[in-house]
Automatic annotation (TrEMBL):
Residues 4-245 form the ABC transporter domain. Part of the ABC transporter complex XacGHIJK involved in the uptake of xylose and arabinose. Responsible for energy coupling to the transport system. The complex is composed of two ATP-binding proteins (XacJ and XacK), two transmembrane proteins (XacH and XacI) and a solute-binding protein (XacG). It catalyses: D-xylose(out) + ATP + H2O = D-xylose(in) + ADP + phosphate + H(+); L-arabinose(out) + ATP + H2O = L-arabinose(in) + ADP + phosphate + H(+). Pfam families: ABC_tran, TOBE_2. This is ABC-type D-xylose/L-arabinose transporter. One of its GO terms (molecular function) is ATP binding. It comes from Halocatena salina. The lineage of its organism: Archaea, Methanobacteriati, Methanobacteriota, Stenosarchaea group, Halobacteria. GO terms for cellular component: ATP-binding cassette (ABC) transporter complex, substrate-binding subunit-containing. InterPro entries: AAA+_ATPase, ABC_transporter-like_ATP-bd, ABC_transporter-like_CS, ABC_transpr_MalK-like, ABC_transpr_MalK/UgpC-like, Mo/tungstate-bd_C_term_dom, NA-bd_OB-fold, P-loop_NTPase. It is found in: Cell membrane. Belongs to the ABC transporter superfamily. Carbohydrate uptake transporter-1 (CUT1) (TC 3.A.1.1) family.
Length: 361
């Protein structure tokens, strides 16, 4: 197990004609500080291009940091080659050797890099294959396996090496939804059993929330917040995190502030009873879909679509020009075109600075 400390990590790439590049360089990672405890399962999450993979590749040693330090158990590893970092990486595309059997794929890394005897390597491969439930596939080649089986082999190959750190980059992206959900829990169980420090990259916030002990949310190469799932959900530091975490996404409204009175699109008004908003004339108001109650006798929200999920309904509608979604039980099912009322508890509101997006809580 390894404790990982990242200080002011910056990674830039030469721009070759990219639109968003400044001064001929792309800043993929822009000053990340992060401490990952021994045995922790941390997830890096954020939209495409936010710098997740680059951060992971710097930790693995596949990319060199432009600036900043990466420490494993206190020792700076920036100059260490990937194979001297004691990390095992699992990728989305599995990266198996097509001409080798599963057994050979799993043992290959150890044969190259360790001084273990072939009997010891065989024993480790057998044990890892049993752990991953692929012991009956050892003689097959990757081309004969399903995507899910190939991903198990890729995971098996990483556990054979008994590394200090697992680095996983969107390992489940190529699997269908059901298999992905299954593999999620398997990876968590595996990580619990082995206790190996794990950094897991995904763009999928649901996957991040389901899997991470803590979750690091990135945007534009900058760490926005790192926290346990409940905190990210209930105490987002800014509008970006509030919007990124949760499905359906939080409703955000631009509202005018007059004392305690909030006025928004489509005639929305609310007497705010929380803490002082300060002398702002505008704020952005956030309300989670499940915190909105629908009153079928009211006339604020014009319903556009009702999605019936079986165990709950998502009710979409318009408040002026803003689309709003409420998450209700199945007994609430207004017709499209109908207007309904909205109510919510004052404590359910999130307030953000309209300019900076920072939480005003
Ligand atoms: P995705 O989920 O799409 O993989 P990501 O969050 O993992 O996104 P990165 O792959 O880390 O993002 O990329 C961050 C930024 O750095 C992007 O703008 C990307 O185009 C750029 N980038 C990444 N690798 C290189 C490279 N080798 N050369 C030039 N630019 C790169």
């Amino acid at each position: 197990m390894t404790k990982i400390t990242i200080n002011d990590l910056v990674k830039t790439f030469e721009a070759s004609g990219q639109r968003d590049a400044e001064d001929g360089e792309i800043v993929a990672v822009d000053g990340i500080d992060l401490e990952i405890a021994d045995g922790e399962f941390i997830v890096l999450v954020g939209p495409s291009g936010c710098g997740k993979s680059t951060t992971l590749r710097c930790i693995a040693g596949l990319d060199n940091a432009t600036q900043g330090e990466i420490r494993f158990d206190g020792e700076i590893v920036n100059a260490r080659r990937p194979r001297d970092r004691d990390v095992a990486m699992v990728f989305q595309n599995y990266a198996l050797y097509p001409h080798m059997t599963v057994e050979e794929n799993m043992g290959f890394g150890l044969k190259l890099s360790s001084k273990l005897s072939s009997a010891e390597i065989d024993a480790r491969v057998t044990e890892a294959a049993e752990t991953m439930g692929i012991d009956d596939l050892l003689a097959k080649k990757p081309g004969e396996l399903s995507g899910g089986q190939q991903q198990r082999v890729a995971l098996g190959r990483s556990i054979v090496r008994e590394p200090g750190v697992f680095l996983m980059d969107e390992p489940l992206s190529n699997l269908d939804a059901k298999l992905r959900a299954e593999m999620r829990t398997e990876i968590q169980e595996l990580q619990n059993d082995l206790g190996v420090t794990t950094i897991y990259v995904t763009h999928d916030q649901t996957e991040a929330m389901a899997m991470g002990d803590r979750i690091a949310v990135l945007d534009g190469g900058v760490l926005q917040q790192v926290d346990v799932p409940e905190q990210l959900y209930r105490n987002p530091v800014n509008e970006f995190v509030a919007d990124f975490i949760g499905s359906p996404s939080i409703n955000l409204l631009d509202v005018a502030v007059d004392g305690k009175r909030l006025t928004g699109p489509g005639g929305f008004t609310h007497e705010y009873t929380g803490h002082e908003i300060g002398d702002r004339s505008r704020v952005r108001l956030g309300i989670r879909p499940e915190d909105l109650a629908i009153d079928e006798r009211g006339d604020v929200l014009t319903v556009s679509v009702v999605e019936k999920m079986g165990n709950e309904n998502f009710i979409y509608g318009h408040l002026g020009d803003r689309e709003i979604v409420a998450r209700t039980d199945t007994s609430v099912r207004p017709d499209p075109g109908e207007t309904v009322g909205l109510s919510f508890a004052n404590e359910a509101l999130y307030l953000f600075d309209a300019q900076s997006g920072r939480s005003l809580e």
